[in-house]
Amino acid sequence: MSRASDRAYNLIRGMILSGELGPGSQLAEEALAVLCDVSRTPIRDALRRLEADLLIRRTGTQRSFVADWSLSDIEDGFELRGMLEAHAARRACQRMDDRALARLRGCNARIRVAIERSEPDVGGFMDANREFHAVVLEQAASRRLSALLGTLVEQPVVRRTAEHYGSDQLWQSWSEHDELIAAFARRDSVWAEAVMQGHIRRAFHTYADAHKGRSGEPRYPVHDNCIQNDGRSGTGPANDDSGRGNAAVARER
């Protein structure tokens, strides 16, 4: 892959994962080329990679849209992640050394600091949580497992699950991490596997509960300069004085 293709891929991927490009949004090659400052060929390469990552979908006419998963799709993703992370925990248990345990304790200490604040620091929680799970995966020492989990963990709904957590859920997550550390310290792989499986399953239920009863509202912000909604939520971007509102928006042709 060319540097231009990599740059376009990383930029568009980042916008999807952050929610700046929302589910169901149409991606216009011409507008993305302007945004990424590349030709349309690297954009096409980037979109093919994003489709392989399950971050976008393409229609029969080759139009590209940010993937919008159903709750059933999301549950499948969490189930797969639960099985894989539980397997990673089991493998890691036999390889966990004192240094790795200290790193896990440090991550969970940062999580505690983040959630003890009067207004919980969700960003701090998410950073420490990602590092905690990364340490477990590192100790599992399986490149194939890392590659498989990389696709699942980088889905937008997984990355933003913590945004739906209230104080009780944040503390529950900390407690489950604490129990995982205890299982690793005991070198009890069955215990570690069971705790990790339940940890991921609970995360799914938190996400699902947060979305019950919601309809007709966009869940994430959209980047008007690069997209056109596919018709499910109403109007497109308004024009502004600079002309950027319409110039970079994908149009039906």
UniProtKB/TrEMBL annotation:
PROSITE patterns: HTH_GNTR. Keywords: DNA-binding, Transcription, Transcription regulation. It comes from the Bacteria. The keyword Transferase does not apply. Residues 2-69 form the HTH gntR-type domain. InterPro entries: GntR_C, TF_FadR/GntR_C, Tscrpt_reg_HTH_GntR, WH-like_DNA-bd_sf, WH_DNA-bd_sf. GO terms for molecular function: DNA binding; DNA-binding transcription factor activity. Residues 212-222 have a biased composition (Basic and acidic residues). Residues 212-253 are annotated as: Disordered. PANTHER family: GLUCONATE OPERON TRANSCRIPTIONAL REPRESSOR, TRANSCRIPTIONAL REGULATOR, GNTR FAMILY. This is GntR family transcriptional regulator. It comes from Novosphingobium aerophilum.
